[in-house]
Amino acid sequence: MAAVALRSCRRGLSQILSNGGLAALSSKRLEGDRRHKSTVQYASRPELPKLAYRRVKGKSPGVVFLPGYGSNMNGQKAEALEEFCRSLGHSYLRFDYTGHGASEGVFAEGTIGTWKKDVLFVLDELAEGPQIMVGSSIGGWLMLLAAIARPEKTAALVGISTAADHIVTSFNTLPLEARKEFEEKGEWTVPTKHSEEGVYKFSMNFLREAENHCVLQSPIPITCPVRLIHGLKDEDVPWHISMQVAERVLSPDVDVILRRHGQHRMSEKEDIKLMVYTIDDLIDKLTTMV
């Protein structure tokens, strides 16, 4: 099983923090050049909705960002990563899942399987060479599924508030009477502050389909470097899920990075800097290994 390290980050970030704190990393890497922001493109797929994406061409390994449930490719983390990758000259790709953002499709008809296919299409058709996949929340779950299916396209993984299996396990831990009530209604409503309606709605079909993609029941056949960042104050996805992922992946190179005051979205300035440093350190590690 994987060796799990609870620490600030690897050697590179530790040196940065000890030599003047978070400001020590070049501001150029964090700010980039906004004048050259990527443009939205659309990828056509036979008999499937078009996917909207933004791409920056550059060196390998590239970085692919996987947003969270109901989110899109224009969030703070996705934008910051583009600026960072552009400043380093590395390729970067962000996209919207089917039914999300600027992509075609109906959000309510999407499933974990649908969005997994989206990620695999992006890796197969839009990304060149092995990628560092950065998955936020449910994107962290999809990141794991994609890495299992495409090990040759996966250089490393960075999970942000990884929500592996979370929807399924949360429903299954409800009291029996509550589960029966939702099953009769055909829909499970979950209060959230991340939706305009104040709730997320999951159909029973969505939950049943999601069960087919659970990864925490057995060892996870992923052997690349894995970094898992999670906030201890995450009220949506408990941090111990990242610990479970770390314990189950087969990779010998796994770090869990816990943010004492971090919340679910991990979009505060210091959170984003930590994410960038972690990816910077991985790029350094991977390019040194070549």
TrEMBL record:
Please spell out the taxonomic lineage of the organism that makes this protein: Eukaryota, Metazoa, Chordata, Craniata, Vertebrata
Question: What name does this protein carry?
Answer: Palmitoyl-protein thioesterase ABHD10, mitochondrial
Listed InterPro entries: AB_hydrolase_1, AB_hydrolase_fold, ABHD10_acyl-thioesterase
* Record family assignment: Belongs to the AB hydrolase superfamily.
Q: Which UniProt keywords apply?
A: Hydrolase, Mitochondrion, Transit peptide
Q: Name one GO molecular function term.
A: hydrolase activity, hydrolyzing O-glycosyl compounds
- The residues covered by the AB hydrolase-1 domain are 63-168
Its function, per the record, reads: Acts as an acyl-protein thioesterase that hydrolyzes fatty acids from acylated residues in proteins. Regulates the mitochondrial S-depalmitoylation of the nucleophilic active site residue of peroxiredoxin-5/PRDX5, a key antioxidant protein, therefore modulating mitochondrial antioxidant ability. Also catalyzes the deglucuronidation of mycophenolic acid acyl-glucuronide, an active metabolite of the immunosuppressant drug mycophenolate.
According to its UniProt record, the EC number is 3.1.1.93, 3.1.2.22
**One cellular component term from this protein's GO annotations in UniProt:** mitochondrion
Major subcellular site: mitochondrion
- A Pfam family per the record: Abhydrolase_1
Could you tell me where this protein is found in the cell?
Answer: Mitochondrion
Name the species this protein comes from: Seriola lalandi dorsalis
Report the catalytic activity: mycophenolic acid O-acyl-beta-D-glucuronide + H2O = mycophenolate + D-glucuronate + H(+); S-hexadecanoyl-L-cysteinyl-[protein] + H2O = L-cysteinyl-[protein] + hexadecanoate + H(+)
